[in-house]
Specification:
By secondary structure, the protein is of the alpha+beta class. Helix content is about 35%, strand content about 30%. It starts with a helix and ends with a strand.
Length: about 80
Amino acid sequence: MTKEELLNNIDKIHTTDMGIIRIQKNLRLNNIDVVEYLKEKIMDNSCYIYKKGKNWYCEIENIIITINSYSYTIITAHIK
């Protein structure tokens, strides 16, 4: 699997209501569209993307984003 697979399916990336709350807390974000914010991070050329097991991991700046590779659900995002 290559990172192009994830990038080609960027429009499928989403999260749950609980995921939004968790990510906002972890990244200290307020009043922001969490999914769009993370999509922009993922599409950044400096984002390191790799697949391990059933998840994609995207590392950029000091953030690690975890995405389920089957459903494209953002599981979590947190600061390293």
